[in-house]
Amino acid sequence: MDNIQSILAAQREYFLKGHTRKLEDRKKNLVRLRKSIKRNEQAIIDALNKDLNKSEFEAYTTEIGILLEEISFAGKHLKKWAAPEKVKTAVTHIGTRGRIVPEPYGTALIIAPWNYPFQLALSPLVGAISAGNTAVLKPSEFAPAVSGLLKRMIEETFPKEYIAVIEGGIETNQQLLAEKFDTIFFTGSVPVGKIVMEAASKHLTPVTLELGGKSPCIVHNDADLKLSARRIAFGKFTNAGQTCIAPDYLMVHEDIKEEFMTLLKSEIEQMFGKDPLQNEKYSRMISEKHFDRLTEFIKEGTILYGGGSKKETLTIAPTILGDVSTDSPVMQEEIFGPVFPVLQYRELEEAISFIQARPKPLALYLFTSSKETEEQVVNRVSFGGGCINDTLMHIATPHLPFGGVGESGMGNYHGKFSFDAFSHYKSVLNQTTRFDFSFRYPNAKNSLKIV
Ligand code: NAD
């Protein structure tokens, strides 16, 4: 049972026979997944180190820990999420009872990227299992150690007719996308997101698209500058900037620019050392192609800090760039690496209209102590999600939906929102048979008939 069609046929049959539906089984399967992660913790850390030179600390905090939390949260709340919800009866519907019944879509396709290759493959799977789907998981070919490990772990834990991992590159993805799934959950770039949506449209398959883009980071003149510098250095350079919600570029108020830049450099040194290229715990670029792309970006402005790189290890030092043209590729494309262009502004309005004139970002970060500034930005700028006075942290709570808007994606997940992403909410109306209103029908004589 190894080709795509036979796996899909087996999953469909497994689903239609109802094997994924019982709440107790879903919970048991979440526990199985959790146990498998715990059992393979060292292997996961090793694979992440092999693919990205991720440190053990980062592997735990940004991949393993976050996932274990997600599984526990789902296990704890699943009963409530899956319960049908009774709704009120409208006066026009006297005698009826209405309820909303969540039902699994069926067979889900989950396509994952390479930057958090473990977490971003399994986190959607938590939603798929919770909601009662079967799933085919396609990890990224750019993270082969994690991809192989995911395959082994899933095969040891679940039968293929329930959850299967299919490894491969673009061609495998194309074959998968040609098939009819009941839902597709894609995490990756904007251009590939468009390919996925086009393929899904052929079967009218619903999609969740977790995409990327350029996420701005604004530092206003009333911000706590030292704290801002620390939190921005953390958000930008974790995983060497290869984070979908990393601050992409900085917009800093001109009055505090010099002071802030000094603090930012000092915080980068504090976190990654004076020579990050010698720091064994600093992540590398995923491939030579990605390394070359990033080093080209560095040539597009004045290097205000960093700028070094080492091709043998595919590492690029945290780099701050000044004097960048807004038309240059570094300000047009998602950077997705440790290069940080800096723009300055005088009036908040300039920063707001700059962002409004571009595709809606996946994340936005604002550093300010003013409620009014916060309201201005939150109410007037559209973005997927973000933080005031922090970076990245909105992704790590199961209480907030995570996702993009416009070109940065559609749909969202995490916590209950993951359950929703893999569920259809079915409306069911129960009509009374004790009486009937004749005026509902053409040419009626009596208004009420007791039956
Ligand atoms: P990518 O779009 O290149 O690849 C993602 C997946 O799509 C991979 O599994 C890959 O095999 C497949 N793929 C690649 N080209 C394809 C094609 N032509 N046809 C069909 N399938 C194809 O993305 P990536 O480089 O792996 O990841 C980086 C991107 O993902 C960035 O844009 C980043 O912002 C985004 N991202 C978003 C989130 C999020 O949660 N919103 C999280 C991580 C990464």
UniProtKB/TrEMBL annotation:
GO annotation, cellular component aspect: cytoplasm
Keyword NAD: yes
InterPro entries xref list: Ald_DH/histidinol_DH, Ald_DH_C, Ald_DH_CS_CYS, Ald_DH_CS_GLU, Ald_DH_N, Aldehyde_DH_dom, Aldehyde_DH_NAD(P)
Coiled coil spans: none
Signal sequence bounds: none
Molecular function in Gene Ontology: aldehyde dehydrogenase (NAD+) activity
PROSITE patterns the UniProt entry points to: ALDEHYDE_DEHYDR_CYS, ALDEHYDE_DEHYDR_GLU
Keywords: NAD, Oxidoreductase
Residues of the active site: E210, C244
Domain (Aldehyde dehydrogenase): residue spans on this chain: 4-428
Keyword Oxidoreductase: yes
Example GO BP: aldehyde metabolic process
Superkingdom of source: Bacteria
Entry's family note: Belongs to the aldehyde dehydrogenase family.
Protein name, per record: Aldehyde dehydrogenase
